Amino acid sequence: MKLILTSFYIHNRLMKRAWINIMLLKFDEAREDAYRSLQYHFDPSVMWNSYEVLGHCYAKIGKHNTAEGFFSQALERLKKSNLDQKRKTVTEMRINSIFKKIKGRKDIGGAAKNITEVLTTPQVSYGVNETLMCATDAVEVNVKEKTDRGLYATKDIDPGDVIMVEKPFVSVLCRENFETHCINCFKRLKSPIPCDTCSRVWFCSEECLKDTNGLHSSECRVLHLLYESEICKVTPAPLVLR
Fold it and tell me: What are the GO BP annotations of this UniProt entry (predicted)?
């Protein structure tokens, strides 16, 4: 019974967030939550909601053929739902009102209206330095004496120019960002997924949650100890562990 109630609770919360994202025109996030909700097979009779959300998302971005399929599935499952007849009739009218508008229409080409954020590595300005690969070609390493070694500009550098890009040897997410950023890739959260073991950190996607190369799995069960330890006052203990 506990598992069933938990599945229903998760499905319900995902659906509420999905509808809010649709109203905010965040169709990628709404679609992710709808697909995620289908993993919780609490009761097939409530799954019409997930399919309706998917239908709305694809209709809004011009994928009418795909939207038709999801609206059809929503109507089929609505017939088997446990809603009372009045709510069932109202819901059916709502789905059909959009279904009829897009039925038979061709897909609209081009990019979707809502694009999921993609984090990219910045590129150095003025090209890559042949001697120091992580630096811009606008600087050079100059060694004049044993104690006089430095990085010197070879041309004027404007404010905002990228001088150096280096991949960190190790990195951790600050504790104050646990609820706003993904613990795995550090991307800002939009439709967060909690860690199913510690529930202290969040992931931005199923891919990050299942990433076997991610380091959270090794620190998950002791995360609270790492941040409460004395060493954390000087150096973040998770950084030392990693």
Answer: methylation
